[in-house]
Write a structure and sequence with these properties.
Distance between the termini: 46 Å
Shape: globular
Structural class: mainly alpha
Keywords: Cell membrane, Membrane, Menaquinone biosynthesis, Transferase, Transmembrane, Transmembrane helix
Largest sheet: none
Subcellular location: Membrane
Pathway: Quinol/quinone metabolism; menaquinone biosynthesis
Oligomer: single chain
Number of strands: 0
Helix content: over 70%
Radius of gyration: 19 Å
GO biological process, one term: menaquinone biosynthetic process
InterPro entries: MenA, UbiA_prenyltransferase, UbiA_sf, UBIAD1
């Protein structure tokens, strides 16, 4: 087994982004004194499995559909390079699909119990998450090739991950939590947008109609700035609605890595130079979550 190729295919650098949304929902629960360690652990594990599933399906799907070609500027993909066979990748996708489902069931068991209406509702959310992870670039009609990836990321990394995690901690829904959920969703969408700006030429060649392919690079940069500004702004609105405390000012530190990312996307026109800023944006989202969490406790 080519361990190095599998680790590369897992794309571990994407995990901070996925875990940031779980952390946000958990911080919100802790701010209401309803945090549960077991929910955090199982939600994090389920999210890691889902993210790896998505990454493997993306590696497989983009190779099959031609998006991972010699024009692509990011890291070499495992299936496209021949380091991992198509059959082995299919097995791995199935394994992580099963792990995601089993872990999700355990999460629901400890949080809301099995058999209730809420259980079946969240079971549906979980199955939708598994389907979304796979069909983004795989399957006969991958929705990522129709430019719907941004909406999916906003829904699953933002609203479902944050609000869902909060609910599993507390068994409550709070309308105000939509603001930080929107922040995390927009930041996750920004990571995807950096990826799509980087791959604009190879995606165009493969017929992958991402947002940057549809609107062009210049408009995609403006779209990126909108994502960052709106994402940060909605979190500030949430902070301002809380009782005043000097400790809340710490969230202002989160603006600096966002400015760095915005500057890079605006100024760096070479696709290879953009690649490090996918990881930087993912880590920026994690840092934002931590600072926001400290600000609301």
């Amino acid at each position: 087994m080519n361990t190095k190729a599998w680790i590369s295919a897992f794309r571990l650098r994407t995990l901070p982004l996925a875990l940031a949304s779980i952390g946000m929902g958990s911080f919100l629960a802790a701010s209401h004194q309803k945090f549960r360690y077991d929910v955090l652990i199982w939600a994090s594990l389920t999210t890691v499995f889902l993210q790896v599933l998505s990454n493997l399906a993306n590696d497989y799907g983009d190779t099959i559909n031609g998006a991972d070609s010699e024009l692509r500027q990011g890291p070499t993909r495992a299936v496209q390079s021949g380091a991992i066979s198509i059959s082995s990748m299919k097995i791995a996708i199935g394994v992580f699909g099963i792990l995601s489902f089993a872990s999700g069931l355990m999460l629901l068991h400890i949080s809301v119990g099995l058999g209730s209406t809420i259980f079946y509702l969240f079971l549906g959310f979980g199955l939708a998450s598994i389907a979304a992870a796979y069909f983004y670039t795989a399957g006969k009609n991958p929705y990522g090739y129709a430019g719907l990836g941004d909406i999916s990321v906003l829904l699953f990394f933002g609203f479902l991950a944050v609000l869902g995690t909060y609910f599993l901690h507390t068994v409550e829904f709070t309308w105000l939590n939509i603001l930080p959920a929107l922040s995390m969703g927009l930041f996750a969408t920004a990571v995807l947008n950096v990826n799509n700006i980087r791959d604009i030429e190879s995606d165009k060649e493969a017929g992958k109609m991402s947002i940057p392919v549809r609107i062009g690079r210049n408009a995609a940069v403006k779209y990126h700035l909108f994502l960052l500004i709106t994402g940060y702004g909605t979190s500030l609105v949430y902070i301002f609605l809380l009782p005043f405390s000097y400790s809340r000012i710490i969230v202002l530190l989160a603006i600096f890595p966002l400015v760095i990312n915005a500057k890079a996307v605006t100024q760096k026109t070479d696709a290879k130079q953009l690649d490090p800023y996918l990881r930087q944006m993912a880590i920026s989202s994690l840092l934002f979550m931590l600072l926001f969490g400290l600000a609301i406790l």
